[in-house]
Design goal:
The structure is a homotetramer. By secondary structure, the first copy, chain A, is an alpha+beta fold. Helix content of chain A is 36%, strand content 20%. The first copy, chain A, contains five helices and eight strands, in the order αβββαβαββαββα. In chain A, strands 3-2-1-4-8-7-6-5 form an eight-stranded mixed sheet, sandwiched between helices. In chain A, α3 crosses α5. The longest helix of chain A has 24 residues. The radius of gyration of chain A is 17 Å and the shape is globular. Chains in contact: A-B, A-D, B-C, C-D.
Chain lengths: 211, 211, 211, 211
């Protein structure tokens, strides 16, 4: 099989953008113990993604690799993370998606465990719901899917495909594991990530306060 | 209709002050997902205000626009945020007010939801009550109004006018939406904002602790 | 009455030390809304203290003034804070004390309200008790006094004098108002302050967790 | 008795690495009130360790000393901390361990008190369990030992030896006192420390949320 060609300038720009944004997210404590990974689409066949197992606050260009949409390394001997396919399935299916962020904050982990049984966490009557693309009013009800954890990534990927068949979503939680959020570019993906984190924290705090 | 004239030096100074202070507030996490907006009075007819939808930690001078006190853009094609009138109604009515800060912290959002039913949140026996202009003793009781959320901003503005008819206040909450705080200058508005945030956190924590 | 003479070099050094340490404490969020004040002994008759009402994250040398041990301004028209005497009574009475820190953190405020009825908050079986001068073992029981708030500062000062008659202490809380902590120098006062803040947070969290 | 020889270049490199990493951990608030200590193995007989009683955010090379594996100072008059032997027993026994980190975060202290009765804290169904060397799946159950506090350090050391006889562990808690975590190098020890802190916080929050 021939590997897709990669534009070096485009890769360098994507690596720089990933490194700078990953450092911000690490500083917030959302990437504990070298967890989490982050990607940007390069073109119709490839994406740049962080190599797993690195301290996300100190990435260098060598910590960014290229993968195709089957999650295989392109032009590199590095082994992509098993979770790579959860990024690339979004690029393969959704042409408008150009950035995927997977984080692992305390609140995301807690919510993923508390709401895995229900299968979703519901946000209602929050102004910040308008932060998600396509939401024009705070009166909407937003249900964020929560998948049961599973070491078999293709099973998770198949579950995500089912979710995407049903309606437009901008993220989901995996039990005990954190959040996937995405957008048309890094700024939108970060705005979605920020809104998910805020709303999840609201719901957790309301559980503590509302008794 | 003739637009009011704007002094460019005054606008540049206001923009610089807004950008620096907004960056501080973003670093505290009080402006999640590009929410929140901030303004400074320029004169008797206009104010400088942050353009909506920008990352509040990275504003540049182009992200500040001028509006009149009906909330209309002055000398710009940018569309002001729908909430602009909640800033400008204060400038139009209260000549001593020169700065309005609207933030969206976790604690503000939680309190706005928990106390919307009561219509206010009460602070009692806190030394920090003296941080508000006109409060000379911690023995005062301070009731901060909480408005029900409403996508129809003129309705919110009319409710705020009723509140201002009754007594002097330095801020209010909107359900699910955050806080408006103001003062005679940026320093006083930030002192009021800081005191609101602190006292709101106190009340929320006391609910968790006092059972 | 003749004012005591002040050594300008000593005052400049004390001001620099106060400004740097106050900035650290402001960054921790322990001085909300221009609250809190900090002092260093200059000699047997005077101390340098922060002027009240300033943003504690941005002090300049002009924000430090000299007071005598009755809490009166020395060589300045500035009005000392009413709470100045709670600093100077310690310098007047305890020759080994050279630094007093008064902060206003969320945890200090909460604990001061929750434990004012009991009159003290008790710390037991914490290794960090050894951070206080004179404590050699974590097996000690440490009772930190909590005074009822009172706008009449001489009454508070008289209560503190009674506490000091009974035993050696390195700090106390005032209801709704925060903490006073002190030490033989800035490093020791900050170590005591840090330990109080940590232990207070432990007790508050244990209340939430231990049911 | 002859002291072991120390390679000055190796010591200087270890001191620099300890200082930089200790500053990071202090900034996280995990070393309150000059608590905590950190070490790196130098060779088969000695380790470099932080001197006790210093502000961990501001260490200088003179705050790093050399000890042998009985916890005695090498080439220095400084008195090693009583807890030194809890570091060196690991170097003496486990040849692959080259870094030991002892911290004192709020969450570690709380968990050490809440779970001392049970003797361990259990982590189950967390993706982050895979952050520990040798854990390949999140399906594992991880029990972290919690020792009763004891001012007699040799007793604690003997208890740790018993734990190490039973199975491979990468850390333990001491009641009221904090966490010991280690690894093959600084990066691995910090990854383990980070994972312990995250998982402990998860368990504490779940106690508050899950009722």
């Amino acid at each position: 099989m021939n590997s897709p060609a990669v534009d070096p300038a485009r890769l360098a720009a994507a690596a720089a953008e990933l490194i700078a944004n990953t450092r911000d997210l690490a500083a917030l404590g959302w990437t504990p113990a070298t967890s989490s990974n982050f990607s940007l689409r390069l073109d119709g066949q490839t994406a740049a993604i962080t190599v797993s197992g690195r301290d996300k606050g100190r990435l260098v260009p060598e910590d960014i690799m290229v993968v195709d949409f089957q999650g295989r390394a392109v032009g590199s001997d590095k082994r992509p993370s098993a979770e790579t396919v959860l990024h690339t399935q979004l690029y393969a299916r959704l042409p408008e998606v150009n950035c995927v962020l997977h984080t692992h904050s305390l609140a995301q982990t807690l919510a993923s465990k508390l709401y895995a049984g229900a299968g979703h966490i519901r946000f209602e009557e929050y102004e910040l719901i308008k932060a998600f693309r396509g939401q024009e009013t705070h009166e909407a009800v937003l249900d964020v899917p929560v998948l049961a954890n599973n070491q078999h990534i293709p099973t998770l990927a198949a579950q995500v495909d089912c979710l995407l068949d049903k309606k437009e979503i901008w993220g989901y939680l995996i039990e005990g594991h954190g959040l996937y959020a995405w957008g048309r570019d890094m700024a939108e993906a970060r705005r979605h990530l920020d809104a998910f984190e805020f709303l999840i924290n609201c719901e957790l705090e309301m559980r503590k306060l509302h008794r």
